[in-house]
Design brief:
By secondary structure, the chain is of the alpha+beta class. The protein is built from 15 helices and nine strands. Bound molecules: flavin mononucleotide (FMN).
């Protein structure tokens, strides 16, 4: 593959993905000047990803990185209608440069930081820059929520969301299965989550390791869910704010646009020296109502999910039209103790040539 193409796809794969599952597949047709991006549904069958919605958002993040890296290198790439079953397609007309390109450092520096932040507010000018960098994208809008009272309200709700999500057995086990207990804590694992990236105290790491063996009633009634709720509240309260991305509809293509909008927000935060972490339990639970299996909805209890959905909608900023699609907390603080790595490119790329297809 052309070195420039390789570099563009490497930039794409630096995007965030639910539990570092990297459920993207790039089908590259160099001769035709085309890349088709699809969701690889085998990579994340977890109930948190019901209907593959989280994976579609990850693909959107990858697409945004690719477009941005191309633009920064003076390569003219346009998005085209994806073929049936695919999430996105890109086309270029002119030959790609042979000398490797150097995409924006923020693409490679962006990282999930699960540490408590230092509680400092973001200066007004910085907030204005963040707003300017995140205009509406095909009806998907980004909202920057700041102010201690508003954050306090969100902290309570997100705490409840985390407690509910982790008290559901299949979700808890799916999350635990993504943790790389088999690797050294600070290893940049190719997939899944390293222990260091979770930023837990030594005692909590041990508790997490034994959790798959703990009966569900102990988790529910033994204070474990309270731990998750309190931890989430503490994280939100240590933050300067939340970035909420709202979507105008439920269409699959909109999930990809949400992923693009989130990536724009996260890159803007990174460029400003701010740290960020998705806090997705409320979105995951909302999504369960739409795409979850009947068993999952019954286990979470439909009426509880519906009540939570209403409470979340009541907290949305007045100007946020549509459904809440992504929540990212942000703030100032030290770099994360550990970051995760990526699969080799070959694991996510299929090369095909138009000529071979026709022959
Ligand atoms: C759709 C989506 C949902 C995510 N949900 C959470 C979350 O609820 N909590 C969290 O700590 N990280 C969450 N993440 C972050 C991923 O775990 C992270 O992107 C992945 O492990 C790769 O690490 P990196 O972002 O440091 O490159 C989410 C990412 C995406 C794209």
């Amino acid at each position: 593959m052309n070195r420039t193409l390789e570099k563009l796809i490497e930039a794409a794969t630096q995007a965030a993905s639910g539990d570092n599952t990297q459920a993207w597949r790039f089908e590259v047709d160099e001769a035709a000047g085309r890349i088709v991006i699809s969701v690889d549904e085998t990579r994340d069958p977890s109930p948190m990803n019901a209907g593959q919605r989280m994976s579609r958002m990850a693909v959107g993040g990858a697409l945004e990185n690719l477009l941005r890296a191309a633009q920064q290198s003076g390569i003219r790439v346009t998005t085209t209608a994806p073929p049936p079953g695919a999430a996105a397609a890109l086309q270029w007309q002119e030959p790609l440069p042979k000398t490797p390109i150097q995409p924006d450092a923020s693409i490679f520096r962006r990282v999930t930081n699960r540490r408590p932040f230092d509680g400092r507010d973001v200066p007004h000018e910085v907030l204005e820059t963040l707003q300017r960098e995140t205009p509406a994208l095909d009806g998907v809008t980004a909202h920057w929520i700041v102010g201690r009272d508003r954050l306090g309200d969100w902290a309570k709700l997100i705490g409840r969301g985390d407690a509910l999500m982790f008290s559901e057995r299949s979700m808890r086990l799916a999350f635990l299965a993504k943790i790389r207990f088999d690797a050294p804590p600070d290893a940049e694992v190719e997939e899944g989550l390293s222990l260091a990236s979770l930023e837990l105290a030594a005692f909590d790491r041990v508790a997490l390791r034994s959790m798959p063996r703990i009966p569900n009633w102990v988790v529910r009634w033994g204070g474990v869910t309270n731990f998750f709720a309190a931890h989430a509240r503490k994280l939100i309260k240590s933050s300067a704010g939340l970035c909420l991305v709202a979507a105008p509809d439920d269409l699959a293509g909109t999930d990809v646009t949400v992923g693009r909008a989130v990536q724009r927000a996260w890159l803007a935060l990174t460029a400003q020296g701010l740290q960020a972490q998705p806090m997705m339990s409320l979105i995951v639970l909302d999504n369960a109502l739409q795409y979850g299996s009947p068993q999952l909805i019954a286990s979470l209890r439909r009426e509880r999910l519906e009540r939570l959905r209403q409470e979340v909608r009541a907290l949305l900023p007045a100007e946020a039209d549509g459904r809440p699609a992504f929540l990212l907390r942000f703030g100032y603080g030290p770099a994360p103790s550990g970051r995760v790595g990526r699969l080799p490119l070959a694991a996510s790329v299929t090369e095909r040539s138009a000529r071979t297809d026709q022959g």
